[in-house]
Amino acid sequence: MDNPGSEVSTVEDFPEEFLFSHISLLDLPVEIFFHICSFLDASTLVHNLGLVCKQFYEILKDDSFWKVKINRIWPNARYPLLPPDEDDELFWKLSCVTIEKQTNLWKNRDLVETFSLQNGHYGTVDAVLLINNGQTCITGGRDRLLICWSLTQPGEEPCDQLCSGLGHEGWIWNITSMDDVIYSSSWDKTIRSWDVTGNSLTPIKSHEMNVQGALLCMNSCPELHLLATGSSCRKVLIFDPRMEKSVARYSPHQAAVIQISMNSKYLVSASEDKTVSVWDVRAGAVMKTFLLAKDSFAMSMFMHNGLVYMGDSNSNIHVLEENNDFNILKSYKTEHTKGITAIHATAGSLMTASLDKTVRIWGATDPPQSIVDFECKHGDVANMHYLNEVLAASAENAIQIWRAKAVYQHQL
Question: What are the residue boundaries of the F-box domain, all occurrences included (predicted)?
């Protein structure tokens, strides 16, 4: 009970500065909170504001907010280049962060620096691999050399060779990594493993593949500790590098196997005969083999988030879905004028490299919309790799690097 003579306080009885000092974001209607969030970058929302308290975290769990934010960047951002992942509650948040970050970076050429790795190879560099968060680049070429390059920090002078040496007795065609070990494949029919420690590239073992033709493609599956390779004699081999014999060996094509990619469930191979074959790893059998196109064959392949992206000899992109029996969902004609030799997908973009001497970065839209195109000053692009805002394209005698400048990295 109030004391006799006491008066009830009203809003007018409190100083204005007292009232406003006690109003916070927690008191705002959700609609106004979302409106304020629309002016903030996705990374700040996910990694800062969303962690302030449980209320902010719960509000920012709403997938519809992130879908709207993504569509403000790319109005046509949708399936299949931006595939939904219903099992991952962070998918739309992290996709938005990646899309916003990559779009802002690649649209503004002033935020990107480029330089070349030269005076190491003589001849076409067909194999390129970035490791150590994009701070080290491993390359192999038709000169049979395997070179390890140290990429300096953004804004510093270009890089130094850590080591260089004869990697194989034939052209080095592919490089991959698994469990901190580097693997290279060659026309000499061998796959060799290497340890990259400090400033050295030390050979570990040489695996003889016992095939009649050159090894033209290779991919790894760290989850199963398996390597897969395709050869010019039409064979596909799957093996565990810890063992001396193959896990599987089969011939699904009528011509050379030139592209291969795998995950823990399936292995997808492509051939010069214009066909694509799917091997069921668990069943140990070919699931299906089909014609990709009547007038072109796959020159590049990348598996990401349940989709298989292929670039063909007629500069088209094909998208296949794992959960739809690997049927072709969409095919797109690109702005490349020659075959697509490399393709890479992220949560925020699609990257392609071509024999027309360009590297193009596309938004996750349907159809893909170009963000930027870079010209490789060393000629036709033979291969490409992307890691941690670093893009490496290999060509004749050299590798060209594009990456975020120091000023942009400080903003992340």
Answer: 22-69
Instruction: Look at residues 289, 294, 331, 327 and name the one whose alpha carbon lies nearest to residue 311.
Output: 331
Name the E strands within 209-325.
Answer: 215-221, 226-231, 236-239, 246-250, 257-262, 266-271, 275-280, 285-291, 298-304, 307-312, 316-321
Q: Encoding tokens for residue 171?
A: 């052209």
Which of 84-88, 336-340, 398-402 is predicted least confidently?
84-88
Cβ-Cβ contacts under 8 Å for 327 (sequence gap 6 or more): 320, 321
The CA distance from 41 to 25, in Å, is 17
Q: What's the rounded Cα separation, in Å, for the pair 49 and 42?
A: 10
Task: Give the mean model confidence (pLDDT) for residues 200-228.
Answer: 91
Mean pLDDT, the chain, whole residue set:
87
- Start-to-end CA distance of the chain, whole Å, equals 57
Q: Which amino acid is at 270?
A: A
Quick one: pLDDT at residue 95? 86
pLDDT tens-digit profile of 291-324? 999 999 999 999 988 899 999 999 999 999 998 9
Q: Which long-range contacts (CB under 8 A, 24 or more apart) does 203-210 make?
A: 205/241, 207/239, 207/241, 209/237
